[in-house]
Amino acid sequence: MSTIDLDEIIKALAHPVRRDILNWLKDPATEFPDQEHSTDFGVCCGQIDQRCGLSQSTVSAHLATLHRAGLIRSQKVGQWHFYKRNEETIQAFLDTLGKEL
Prior knowledge:
Elements: H1 6-13, H2 16-24, H3 28-31, E1 43-44, H4 45-52, H5 56-68, E2 72-77, E3 80-85, H6 87-100
Antiparallel strand pairs: 1-3, 2-3
Helix pairs in contact: 1-5
Domain HTH arsR-type: 1-101
Keywords: DNA-binding, Transcription, Transcription regulation
Protein name: Helix-turn-helix transcriptional regulator
């Protein structure tokens, strides 16, 4: 199990758009059916931008916050950046939260 920063994760989850992104990444094939690439790599940043309806820079800032908190992983394939949930960190957070409260 990885070490987590509980406060960093809670801050990341404090914004509804970041929670939406995490929820969408639970089932990328369903939530992003128009993605041309396989969802094995995750979801392309451009798809997340479109779904959010926010500027690319705003979405990038949200993704960076989630990444810093360890809630998502990123992978660059060619010119594209793909994102997926980091289930290990999410589960560690839930386990820790259950022990803390």
